[in-house]
Amino acid sequence: MKSSSGPKQQIFSHLAEIAAALAHPHRIEILELIAQGERSVEDLAERIGLSLSNTSRHLQVLRRARLAAPRREGKNMFYSLVSETEVVTLLASLGRVGERNIAEIDQVLQSYFRARDSLEPVSRLALLERLRDGSVTLLDVRPADEFARGHLPGALNIPLAPLGQLVL
For the chain, how long is the longest CA-to-CA vector? Predict the structure, then answer.
């Protein structure tokens, strides 16, 4: 006869809490960001495009699952990974399972990452040469104020946000 509260079920319950914490794309993105180093709630909110309160709620779920840990500095909260190596390994394993089992993930990888790797690397000097002879057009997608501070001769400035609207 099975016991619903035996040691095995208690372990499964804790593992399910971790799995539930990973069950939202924003939380996986937050983990990826804090795997790169400690970040403030404000920085995380800006990077993933969420409100501070929504970002804080996601961080609380990750904290309860013991995947992320907070640190207070004055009025600011900073988050880092708990057991960094294990959490990074968990995210990498999740990615490998996704690549193997979900065709859409493989399609995104093929069209975005692997296609990008097939681009020809060009040195600054070679690029300037190509600009001079008119064999390439260089788009500078930085904001207009940054472009005005300096750019390669012949570059065209179309900031990324308007460019994204043109492509869509």
Answer: 81
Alpha helices in 22-51 (DSSP H): 25-35, 41-48
Rounded to the nearest 5°, which phi and psi values hold at 157? -105, 115
Residue type, 17: E
Summarize pLDDT for 116-167 with one digit per residue, the tens: 666 778 888 888 888 889 888 888 888 787 788 788 888 889 887 766 666 5
Q: What is the DSSP track for 84-121?
A: HHHHHHHHHHHHHHHHHH-HHHHHHIIIIIIHHHTSPP
Residues 6+ apart with CB under 8 A from 39: 33, 47, 78, 79, 80
Contact assessment for residue 56 and residue 68, using Cβ atoms and an 8 Å cutoff: no
Q: Is the pTM of this model over 0.70?
A: no
Asked if 141 and 158 count as a contact pair (C-beta separation under 8 A), the reply is yes
